[in-house]
Write the C-alpha cells for this entry.
Amino acid sequence: MSQSCEVAIVGSGFAGSLLARVLAVLGYDVVLLERGTHPRFAIGESSTPLANLSLERLGIRYGLADCYNLATHGRWLAHFPEIRRGLKRGFTYYRHHPDQPFANRGLDSERLLVAASPHDSLSDTHWLRADVDHHFVREAMAAGVDYRDRVELTSADVAADSVRVSGNQNGSAFELRANFLIDASGPGGFLARQLSIPSGLEHTETRAAIVFSHFDGVRLMKDVVPGIPEGPYPDDWAAVHHVIDEGWMYSLRFDDGVTSAGFLLTPRGAGALNSSGAADPASLWRELIQRYPTLASAFAEATPLMPIAFRPLIQHRLTRAAGERWAMMPHAYAFVDPLYSTGIAWGLRAIERLALAFESAAPNRRVPDPDVLARYDAALSREADQIDLVVAGAYEAMAHFDLFAAQAMLYFATVSFAEVSQRLAQKESAAWNGFLGVGDPVLEPLAREALRRLRQITQRRGEVGTSEERRGFVEWISQAIAPRNIAGLADPSRKNLYPVDFDALIEQHALLGLTRAEVLEALPALRGMGAEPPLSGESSRQRGFPLPHTELLGRDLL
C-alpha cells in the first residue's frame, strides 16, 4: 500500500501530537506515526513557567483552548479534572548525607526553595504523561490528523523533493511519501539511524545514569522532617530534589498521591554502587534509599506501581537537527538531564518555531524555507550546549550545598528574566528567543565560566574547596547575574527561601528597560493574566496577540 501526505511525524508524545495538530489547523495534510499505543508510560513530567507561556501562545495563536487551559494548575482543574496532574509551586532542594537524617537546623538548613508562582491557581504542573500524551493524540485526531499506531518503520529515503518512509502496520507493509518528515520519536530515533547522523555526545559535559519508577505511599517531607520552617509554598508541592553524594533524586507528587521518583547517578556515584554488588534496579534502589535515613523514612511504605527501571546513560546528542526536507524535535536531537525541568519547555518552544516555519512557507513549496530550517538547527545546537553547561555546573556544585545553591541562582535568574520579558511582549518573535540565556550577551557566557570556576574548586573529584573559595564563587554568581536579577535572587537575608517577589521586580524596573510606572501597569500581564483565553477554534494569527485584560487580575493576587 503506497500513500502520500504533506507532513509525516514519527512519534506521538505530546510534542509530536501537538505539532501535528497545529499543522492540521494550518491546513496541512498530516500523518502521525506511532510505534506503540496510548495510553503509555513516559517520563519527563515537570512543566515550568516558560513551558506554560509557550502552551498559552500556542493556544491563543492557533485557537487551541485546551492548551491555554492546561497552562496553569487552576485552569487545568477547572476544565480537565480527568487528566491527572500534580501541583508544582516551585523548586525544592535538600542536601542529604550518608547515614545521617536530614539536619533540620531551621533557617540554616541545607535547603533551597524557589517559588515559580505566587498562588496555586497560577501554578505550574507535573504532567502525568500517560494521560497528557493521550489527550494530545485524541485532539490531533479530532483536528484531522491521520493517526496510525503499531507502526514499525524500517527505512527512510530523503530526496530533494520528498521523503519516503517504509515499514509495516500490524504486519501489513506500507510506503508513505511526504513532502516533509519530523522526527519526534526520542533518543536514538528513527532519522538518526536512517540518515546516519553522527553523535555529538563526546563534546558534551554531563553524564548520568537513572533508576526510577512511579510509587504509591510516599510520605511528605513535612511529615518526615517535622518542624522545618515554612517556606514560600509547601515544600512537597514542587519539583523536589534530594541532593546526595552519588548525584540527586527527583520526587514529583501528583494530585492523586502517586509520586514519580528517580535517582540520577554520576559516573563516580554509579561506579561506587556497582562495586557494592547491587545486582538489579530494585536492589540498587533499595541500597540508595537505605543509605539516606530521611529518604528511607519517606519511602518506608512506598510501593512501586511498575517495575523499577534502570538506564546506564540518559544523555544523548546528535550533530544535526534539521535538513531541507526533515527536522527533529529537541528530545530526538538531544537530552541532557531533568535537573532543571527543561524538557517540556524546550519541546514546546520547538513546536512554536516549526509551526511558524510552516506558516511562512512559500505557497508553491508548502515546506519550511531552508534558511529557517538552518536557523532552527543552529538554535537547537547552541541551546543544547547551554543546557549541558548549566547542568554540568550544578553536578560539580553538588560537592557543597553553598556552591549548589549559588549555581542554581544562575538558572533561576535566567528563566525569571526570560519569563518576565516574554510576558511583557507577547508576540510571535518570542518563539525564537534563545532558550536558557542563549543570545543574551550577559547570561550566555556565564554557564561556561561558572563550570570553569567550579572545576577549579572541586578539581573534578568532588572536592569541597576552602570556605574562601566557596565564598568567592557565591559572590561572583551574585555579581554576574546582577544585570538580569529581577527576582531578588542571591540574597543571603532570604536564607535560601525565595517567594515570587513583585517588590523586587518593581525595584529592578530599569533592568527591563522600563520605568517603575510601566512595570506597575504591566503587572497583570506579568501575573499570567494578560493573555486572552481562546474560544474553541478561534485563532489570533490574523489579529495579533491581545492586550492585557486588567480586570481579570484579582486583588488577592497583587
Q: What stands out?
A: Residues 399-513 form one domain.
